[in-house]
Structures are given as structure tokens and as C-alpha cells.
Amino acid sequence: MENLQHNFRLKIDGDFFEVDVSNSSFNKTIDKNYSFHSMHYHRFIELFIVIDGSVTVVTEKGEISSSNGIVVIPPFLTHYSKRSGEIFNFSFLIKKGKSNSGFSKLFNSTSIFSLEKNENILKYISVLKDMFVNEKNFVLEKAELLFKLLFWEIILVNNAHNDNLDLNSTSYTTKIENFIFYNYNKDVTLKDFAKHLSLSTRQTSRIIHQNYGKSFSTLLNERRLYIASQLLLNSNKSMAEIAEAVCFNTENYFYSQFKKHYGLTPLQYKKKYFNTVK
User: Fold this and answer.
1) What does the alpha-carbon distance between residue 63 and residue 113 come to, in Å, rounded to a whole number?
2) What is the CATH number of the domain that holds 172?
3) 113 and 11 part of one domain
4) Could you give the CA distance from residue 22 to residue 27 in angstroms, rounded to a whole number?
5) In the prediction, which pLDDT does 277 show?
6) Does residue 235 sit in the same domain as residue 192?
7) DSSP secondary structure of 88-116
8) β-pairing, 45-59 with 79-96?
9) Is 221's pLDDT higher than 90?
10) pLDDT over 80 at 16, yes or no
11) Same structural domain for residues 24 and 156?
């Protein structure tokens, strides 16, 4: 049958989203070595749901494979796919809705990712498959309901996946420290770091607290103050220049934060420790 061309409204966490489901189709790949090698990108979000077989999505930065789940490809990411077996493949565009919502963040990640499918997802896909393969069974209202249920279930699976993350993973501590190291001189927030990790702010905050027992803003502030202390002892910058270099909005705020952290004003700190610097 022809690809579905339809928009529908989806309510997530009290917010309405208009979702354009286009180019949705059920693909059964006979050739086990099938590969679409032409690198391309599109403005739509693309999902591969493996029913029986496997799919590998290759990008310029690497690849991700799944034989038992869902692969999500964000918009404008150059890629190609290798797949075999029965794959439900569809694209969609979030046309309206809050860009900072969990729903938008999940499907507008900056990199490909995979999730496991469950019995509900398989059930919804099975009915959709029948509707796409047998045109006489296609009912627009039923397809719309199934897509809504499918989105809901994917969100629930993602939330469960995030709740089971290894919060103490060294990969997270490395990402935290690298992000702060390279961004201490910029006006960044927990929200920016969460976007960098493709996680919710709640989950990101949990990871940081689990590993450091502190908030993101505290870690960022400590790095800024450490850099400021080194500039005090190793440069000829003025207090105003140092405050600006470590992204404190005002010199007075820089003074108060420095004294709170070190127990000394910047001038007292420099007078006490300057001669110890070799």
C-alpha cells in the first residue's frame, strides 16, 4: 500500500504534540546481506524496529546494531543501514510541541541509540504490519491509535532503561569532568549537560549526585574557582579580567564566591600563596 501520510496529536505529560508520520512501511528483506550503502540524511526522525532479523546503522562516527530491539536515528545525521529479516521502518517529524520536553529530547538526540522492544511493542507492530501488508485491513483511525500506543510504549521503555543505568559508571565521571573542563568559561547549565548526554535533567542530576555527592552547579563553580586561583598566582590579570575569564557575571559575585570557597578574599589568597608558586 502507499505510505501513510497523516498527522496526529499526541498528549505527553500534559503537553500536546503534532506528529507527522510519513514514509511508514513494513519491510521484509529477503537478501540477508542487504545493505543500503548510500550515505544520506533527512529531516525526519527514523526508527527501525526489528521483528525478526537484525539492523545495523552506520554513521561517520561509528555504528550501532540491534537484533532484538529498536534503533532510533535522529534528524540530519548522515548514515546508511544494513538489515536483514523483517523490519518495521518508519519516519516521523515532531511538528509542534515543547522542544524541551522529555518526548522531544528522546527523539531529537544528537546520535543514534537503541532500545529493547517488549511484548506490547511487538503486539502493536504486529497489527500495524498486517494493516500495511494487507491494504483492505487498513483503517486510518486504528493506525493512528496504534502509533500513539507505540510512542507511549517506547517512552516507557526508555524511562525504564534510564532508571537502570549504571550511575557509577566511570564513563559518566569522565564525561562530567570533560564537559566541565571544556565549558567552565561558558554560560552552561545542567540542562546543557543533560542534552550533551541525551538524558533528562533528572537522570543527569542523579548521575552527578551519585558520583560526587554534589550538584552540577557546585562542580562547575568549584572548577571556575580553581582556575581563578591559578590565574591569581600565575598571571597579571586584574580581578575583573579573572572574573570574566571564569564566567562570573560580576566582580562582586566572584569575590563572594571565592571567599566562601577558600575562606579568603582573592587578594588575601594571592598575598598568602603567591610566594609559594615556583
Assistant:
1) 10
2) 1.10.10.60
3) yes
4) 15
5) 45
6) yes
7) EEEEEEEEES-TTSHHHHHHT-SS-EEEE
8) antiparallel
9) yes
10) no
11) yes
Q: Is the pTM of this model over 0.85?
A: no
Q: 51 and 159 share a domain? A: yes
Return the minimum-mean-pLDDT range out of 95-99, 194-198, 202-206: 95-99
Spatial contact of 47 and 90, defined as CB atoms under 8 Å apart:
yes
Domain with 135 in it: what CATH number?
2.60.120
Q: Is residue 158 a part of any domain in this protein?
A: yes
* Alpha helices (H) along the chain: 102-107, 119-133, 140-163, 170-183, 190-197, 201-212, 216-234, 239-245, 251-262, 266-273
Instruction: Tell me the C-alpha to C-alpha distance, in Å, between residue 107 and each of 46, 74, 104, 168, 232.
Output: 9, 7, 5, 25, 45
Burial 147-185 (b: 16+ CB within 10 A, else e): bbbbbbbbbebbeeebeeeeeeeeebeeebeebbeebbe
- Residue 32 makes CB contacts below 8 A (sequence gap 6+) with 84, 85
| Together in a domain, 56 and 146 | yes
Provide the domain limits for residue 153: 6-163
Task: Please state, as a whole number, how many other Cβ atoms lie within 10 Å of the Cβ of residue 254.
Answer: 22
Q: What is the pLDDT of residues 150-163, one digit of tens each?
A: 888 887 777 666 65
